[in-house]
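For anyone still unconvinced, we reproduce a single protein record, the chain in one-letter code, the fold tokenised, and leave readers to judge:
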Amino acid sequence: MPFADILGHERVIEVFRRAISSGKTSHSYIFEGPSGCGRRITAQALIQALFCQNMADDACGTCPSCRKVAGGNHADIHIVEPLPDKRDISIDQLREMQRELALRPYEAPRKACFLEPAERMSVNAANSLLKTLEEPPGNAIIILFTENADMLLPTIRSRCQLVRFSPLSPEHVRMLLEQKGIEGASAALLSQMADGSMQRALELDNESLTERCELLLKHLNNMSLGKIVTVFNASEELGGNRDNALETLDLLLSFIRDMLHLAAGCNDIINTAIRPALESLVSGLSLDRIMQLAGDIIETRRAVQRNANVKLALDHLFIKVAGAAA
């Protein structure tokens, strides 16, 4: 994949372009960022550019080397990850990797290794890697992937160049989803709930999301402080486990965003399929009240992320929602 095809990480790509042009790429990198933000595909593009047979500072995408890297079957790229029945990357795996890197490349100018997740190396395994990171054999390039570089040993961090990846913007997630053939309205909704991660966006079940959307609308229309049981029923049915609660809150946030737009006279909304229902909800609320509800939802989401009791957190939020509509 050429660098130009990567969305959302222009600053990182420009750094790599300059490094390749000047011949000053590092031998060891730490790619830090949330899962699904584009770390792995950027690493693949970097290796394609270094291995490409036709271009000097990018990947052509068509030469045999580029096609092999894209297909995940290039003989000079080694992947190190926990074995299926193990939690951690073992010292034996790293020793095997070191033996492989010490051999001459089969066809590329150098070997490459992806190690993920880097924080899952045992202490002994991490210590065994120090010499290799400092002086990789045969000019090899090693890329460690992690969501939090602070979880790695200081001695590991000091031997690598740190590259930070931010979560993707909703707009970039939407564009990538549409490239994968997902219909515009669904892509817009999923992008708002993906937390900047393409992985999360693709894991969300679109059919299940539609059912949850209908269920949430039903409860929003039925909730009343005069019948407090309707509030408790909503939190019971929409909560469940932590992941379900976060999905509900993300969906509710997308509703509130659209309601803010409608209340302000803007027609740019995500949930176009339920526009009449959202217009009905907006009719009884002021712009200030909707903004207050948005803040309440965000605070509830943070509480759930901090392991607050899901049922109590949703009870508290839905009492406010029912009160706003009263």
